[in-house]
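During the second half of the funding period, the structural biology subgroup turned its attention to how the target accommodates small molecules. The most pressing case was adenosine-5'-triphosphate, which had performed well in the primary screen but for which no bound structure existed. We therefore specified the complex as follows and requested a full 3D prediction, including the ligand pose.
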Amino acid sequence: MKKQKPTPVELTPEQIYKHLDRYVVGQEKAKRAVAIAAYQHIKRISHPGLKKSGIVKKSNVLLIGPTGCGKTYLARRLAEILELPFAIADATEYTEAGYYGKDVEVMAGELLQRAGGNVALAEMGIIFIDEIDKVARKSDHGRTGSGGRDIGGEGVQQSLLRMLEGQKMYIPENVTQHWNKHDFVLLDTTNILFICAGTFSDLRAEKIPNPPGFSTKGLPEKARFKKITNEDLTRHGMIPELLGRLPVMVRMDELSPEDLLRVLTEPPDSLVNQYKELMKADDIELVFEVEALKAMVAECQKRKVGARGLRGLMEEVLHDHLFDAPNMRGQTLAITPTYVHERLAKAE
Ligand SMILES: Nc1ncnc2c1ncn2[C@@H]1O[C@H](COP(=O)(O)OP(=O)(O)OP(=O)(O)O)[C@@H](O)[C@H]1O
Ligand SMILES: [Mg+2]
């Protein structure tokens, strides 16, 4: 086992933000909050004084936003720029220790793997816990099928709490194979940064009632959503102790039609760029009319899956062209709004 302590690259919040901003459309608050949290994390782990004194506590982050608004995407892009081990875990795969499913130790095990087995490096890493809202405490215990024990909900939250708080835990060295047959190493989670994300969809539906005599007409839709408080999250089934360990709470917005249009065209890995490249490999020039892209955005909004729906739509629209590509070398294909409507009608 390697023992040497690596020094992480120092990036300013602005540098981190700029990288995120190249890819993630909108979500300004979230990009800034995540940039600050990552910066502080690097500061904490690289300044021996700060680390030793233990005065500066971690600023674990909780991202809340509707499906397809960029939560997981933001995390992946963050991982890319920080030269620190970064593990992404899906909370729904975990159960309380001793039950069928993964123990939370496996999350740290995955981080260790990302760190190439270097414990000191893993102890500086970041764990992104996705779908955290799915481990809400279930009030109706009868339905968990576990004889009243809430092994996937509260049980997981309790285990996560211990890990977030910081503890030395024995973690599997090798998570790729059946891990309980393998060696364990001691890893301290005190300085690991946790970023959690969830949709908490039942909470987002609550709108602020119109105050008497006021009309909210004309206000943007998002302004009418109620601010989500810790009490709301507790009512959803999150244990207060866990929320207490996630002090930075950021709400992410549903993407507007303008945002979706930008998602299609602006990021370096945008879908338009991807499909243009793909066709170029067959010597075909693919051109999208703006109105055609707008028609796709309108359809995407109907499906209510956020930006996640765009790839599927692109596949539906380009289906015939993708099939015929090898026979169309040297041609230019223009995607018009009429073509989009025709294709979508066919795909239904
Ligand atoms: N704000 C955004 N900027 C650019 N692309 C985005 C954005 N939001 C989503 N996307 C695109 O949509 C895809 C799906 O988004 P993502 O996986 O981040 O959704 P999510 O918020 O994690 O949703 P869920 O709650 O369903 O997991 C991403 O891979 C990305 O291509
Ligand atoms: Mg996600």
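Two results from this model are relevant to the next phase. The pocket of adenosine-5'-triphosphate (ligand 1) is lined by residues 24-27, 65, 67-73, 199, 255, 263, 267, 306-308 (CB under 6 Å). Confidence is low (pLDDT under 50) at residues 140-146.
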